[in-house]
Design brief:
- The protein has one helix at 18-29; strands spanning 3-6, 33-36.
- The protein is an alpha+beta fold and 37 residues long.
- The radius of gyration is 11 Å and the shape is elongated.
- It starts with a strand and ends with a strand.
- It has one domain (3-36).
């Protein structure tokens, strides 16, 4: 049974590439958590 979570991602708050940042977050969390972004 996977845990689920709702992720609020604010790309304006970061200073880097927001698409790359979101991809990294997903790669780390999605194997363990069912994300709703």
């Amino acid at each position: 049974m996977n845990r689920s979570a709702c992720l609020i991602f604010n790309p304006v708050a970061g200073q880097g590439d927001s698409e790359q940042d979101l991809a990294m977050i997903r790669a780390i969390l999605e194997p363990e958590i069912d994300l709703d972004i």
